[in-house]
Amino acid sequence: MFTFVIWVILFQAVYSLKLVELNVPAGVALGSPVWMYCGYDLEGDDLYSVKWYKDHVEFYRFLPSDQPPGQKYDLHGVNIDLERSNHTHVFLTETSLSTEGLYECEVSTEAPSYSTVQVDKTLKIYALPQEPPDIEGNQPTYQIGEVVNVTCQSKSSKPASNLTWYVNGKKAKPLYITAYPIQKQQNGLETTALGLTFIVTYSHFSYGAMRLRCTASVIQEYSTHSKELIVGENIKADNFYSSNVVVQDIAPRVTGDRGKYVVGDIVDLNCSSSRFTKSLRLSWTINGKPANISYLVRYPDVHQENGITFCRLGLRFIVTQKHLHGDGLKIRCTATVAKVIDTNEKEVFIGGFQQTSGLHVVGNLEADLAKGRVDAFIPSWIFILGLPTFMLQIQSSA
C-alpha cells in the first residue's frame, strides 16, 4: 500500500524551497535492497539539512556543514549503506519484514527562507508463497446427494493469499464458500483458508469426473491516495495545497462539498478517480471509520472515446450530532490500486458413479475430444483421485 501525505512547515510568507519528487518503492520483495530518492529545488537558497525518518524516527541525516556530512542512526529493519547515501539518496542493503513502514524525507534551507518541507510514502514488504495451496478433505469418489466439504489452505506469504474456488472451471457460488480468518505466524508471514461445501448433483460431473480447483493469488495494494474534507458548523472544508510542494498529485477528486454543515443538513458528495486502472477501488470513511453501506451511492464506470475509464462513488447522509465533534466532521475518500503479483493453483479430479462407455480416460477430455483425439495429460501438481485400477491412453488414427 502506497500512502501519500504532506506536512508543510512554513516560516515566511515567501516560499522558495520546492520538493519535486519522493521516490520510495511501494512494494519490495523480502530481502531485496532498496534505493530511495528525495528530489528538491532550493531555488537559490542554501541547503541546511536533509533528514530521513521511518515511522517518525530519524535514521539518516545529511548536513553539508558537518564532517562527514552524512550520519546514520541504528534502527531495526533499516540497514543503510552510509557510503552510498547522500543529500538526495539513501540505500538500504537488504530488507526484512521490519523494513516495512512510513518513510519521510524532510528538507530544510538556511537563511533567509528557513523553510522546511516533509513528504512521506509507505513501503510494503511482500513475500511470495513457495508452493501451491493444499486441498484438504476431498474423498476419492462422491455419489449424487453426498456432501463435498473441502478446504483450501494457502502457503505462507505476505500479504496472505487471496483464495478462490472453481468447480469444473467455473467460479464457485458464494453460497458454497466459507471464509476463515487470516493466521499470522511467528515469522510474520500469513496463511489463510477457504472452505467449499455443496451437495453433489448430476451437473457436477463431466465424463464421470468432477474438477475442483483452488487458486491462490497474492495481491499487493501498491497505490493509495486520499482526499479529506474537514467540515463543521464553524469549520470550512480543508482544500489547502501548498505552492512549494510540487510532487504530482494523483489523489481522487471530491465534489459537492458545501464547506459548512450543521445538524440536519444533507451531505451529498461524489468521489471520482483522477486516473483509472481496472483494479482501482474507491472507499469513503467518516471520522476515521468506514462509511455505512447505506450512505454509499454507486455509479457505473464512465468509458471515454480515448479509451480512458473513470469510476465514481457517491456519499449521501444526513448530519446528526454524533457526526460532529471538536475536530469537525472528517470525511475522506480513498482510491486504492492493487495488482496480482503471484498466482498458484491446485486442482483435484474426483470420480463419480456415472457410467461411461467403459473406458476411463485421464486428461483434458473436453479439449481433446474437440480436437478429435484423446491423450492422457497429468500436470505435476494435479492429484487424480477416484479413478479405476486401470488407465488407457487412446490416440485417434487421424
Give the tags.
398 residues; mainly beta; eight-stranded mixed beta sheet; seven-stranded mixed beta sheet; disordered N terminus
Write the topology of this structure:
Elements: E1 4-9, E2 18-23, E3 27-29, E4 34-41, E5 47-54, E6 57-62, E7 70-72, E8 89-92, E9 101-109, E10 116-126, E11 134-136, E12 141-142, E13 147-153, E14 162-167, E15 170-171, E16 177-179, E17 183-184, E18 190-191, E19 193-199, E20 209-231, E21 253-255, E22 266-272, E23 280-286, E24 289-290, E25 296-298, E26 302-303, E27 309-310, E28 312-318, E29 329-352, H1 365-370, E30 382-384
Quickly describe the structure:
The protein has 398 residues and is mostly beta strands. 2% of the residues lie in helices and 45% in strands.
Question: How does this model look, in words?
Answer:
There is one protein chain. The protein is an all-beta fold and 398 residues long. It contains one helix and 30 strands. The chain has one helix at residues 365-370, and strands at residues 4-9, 18-23, 27-29, 34-41, 47-54, 57-62, 70-72, 89-92, 101-109, 116-126, 134-136, 141-142, 147-153, 162-167, 170-171, 177-179, 183-184, 190-191, 193-199, 209-231, 253-255, 266-272, 280-286, 289-290, 296-298, 302-303, 309-310, 312-318, 329-352, 382-384. Strands 12, 14, 15, 20, 23, 24, 29 and 30 form an eight-stranded mixed beta sheet that branches. The chain is 2% helix and 45% strand. The two termini are 55 Å apart.
